[in-house]
Design goal:
disordered N terminus; Rossmann fold; about 325 residues; disordered C terminus; two-stranded parallel sheet; 9 strands; alpha/beta
Amino acid sequence: MTRSARAPRGRLPNALIAGAQKSGTTSLHRGLETHPQIFFPKGKQEIHFFDVAANYARGLDYYAALFSGHGGRPVVAQTSPLYLYEPAVAGRIFEALPEAKLLFILRNPVDRAYSHYWHEVRYGYEKLSFAEALAAEPERLKGDFEARRHWSYLDRGRYAVQLRRYLDLYPEEQIMVCLQDELARDQPRLLRRCAAFLGADSGYSGWVPAGEAGSGAGPVRRHNRARVPRIALLQRMTRGLRKRSRTAAALVDAVNLRPIRYPPMADELRQRLEGELAGEIERLESLIGLDVASRWLPTVRPSAGDRASRGFR
């Protein structure tokens, strides 16, 4: 698709929460959508316009129609965690939305990979153990989009190369990178920073720390809690149903999913993965100027004086 001389019919978004998956994008979305100046389309959270070929082929008129209820709000936004990972997406977004603000939230890539693994178990796409799935990942990723979507556990944690695609296109002032640690530690503070970045009033008072009484939207709660299927095949078979009816999908989940506590990752495996990703984490730190190595690599603990959090956003 090339940008047409004719403007699309309708309002295109001027803000995106673009990843990374399993890093707090849902909590960030749910928090920001309570702001009276920020509009997200109602219904399904993840639109998948720029990453799913069939959706992208429908064109910008189709995409713009999804935001018809914005009501003149200054920030019109959408969320799709795969936008960070898929290689073609950055160019597509820039072609359509060169003035957009891009918000990325990142998580310790080892923890992200483990959470992603259990997500695929939950929806019936993973039968291997975590260690077996990691060993199978390079061969699996030779497959198509669906393979990358479901089994890119470690590969999605290679954030530096993914963010570089956007930084090569957009000026730094249009990009904000934050960490899931911030969301867990002080949700209202991070939401205020995000609102200010997006151009909304950062003085909105509807955000209160979880567990505290308050007015407005109330506390931002944790989403995507741990559950696994009783029958994995049933979860896979109802994927199409999820796209058509959230109510029916919720009924299937209520019957077929049971809550669990994920077993802790083996120490030896965690240490191996940290070693494998150490170079990636250091490259990310150099790219965005945020102290992530001391947070994500327990064996590397520089002093506060040696590493300042000097991120561009």
